């Protein structure tokens, strides 16, 4: 996907997140993040936006901690979120294509700018779902190509890291198949971090998860239950994912 496409998605979903949060109220509970209220959602996502903008805008080559979010409420908190989101979009749009800065997933992006545009688009899209859950409305449609990319980032990036908790005592294989885009991932699970390859392999499959890319995106990011007719084979692996795959 093009950097401009990621930035447009980030811009749209961030604006929608703020509008939904305003409608729900900052004290509303977030069912998809049981320990959070909307205020926590805004503080977290707003801090991540500022954190990401710092790497790109300042060309930082070393990791740094998230900036502290202010203890604001109501309209002031929403204004703070909107300000940081707009600044991130502006930073990504204005950054030189060859900007050098720190990134953190093991899968190589075409450039640091591409990495951060992609990462923040998915960060914001998933948390936009949280705002919709807080308001009690259906998730907005996700383009199949974007959803496929988000599943790929999750499987080949986040869960390849040592901090991933998706482990099995014996080797198991999970296959993920996007029915509408044709994308397939084979996820090898063990006591080590998951190892994912794109496409099918000769491995015997213990559990297969099939569905449209948008459903896979929401379910694998734990925003929808990973259950239903699209889950075949050992349902224990799907439960394991739901219980341990939180980022």
Low-confidence stretches: none
Give the rounded overall mean pLDDT: 97
Q: Which of globular, elongated, flat, extended, rod-shaped describes the shape?
A: globular
Characterize the main sheet. Answer: 5 strands, mixed
Question: How much of the residues is beta strand, in percent?
Answer: 5-15%
Strand/helix succession: HHHHHEEEEHEH
As a percent range, the share of helical residues equals: 40-55%
Structural class: alpha+beta
- Radius of gyration over alpha carbons? 18 Å
Determine the N-to-C terminus distance: 23 Å
**Strand neighbour order, sheet with most strands:** 3-2-1-4-5
Total beta strand runs: 5
Number of helices: 7
Description:
The chain has 247 residues and is α+β, with helices and mostly antiparallel strands. It contains seven helices and five strands. It has a five-stranded mixed sheet. Helix 1 runs parallel beside helix 4, helix 2 runs parallel beside helix 3 and helix 5 runs parallel beside helix 6. It starts with a helix and ends with a helix. The model has no long low-confidence stretch (mean pLDDT 97).
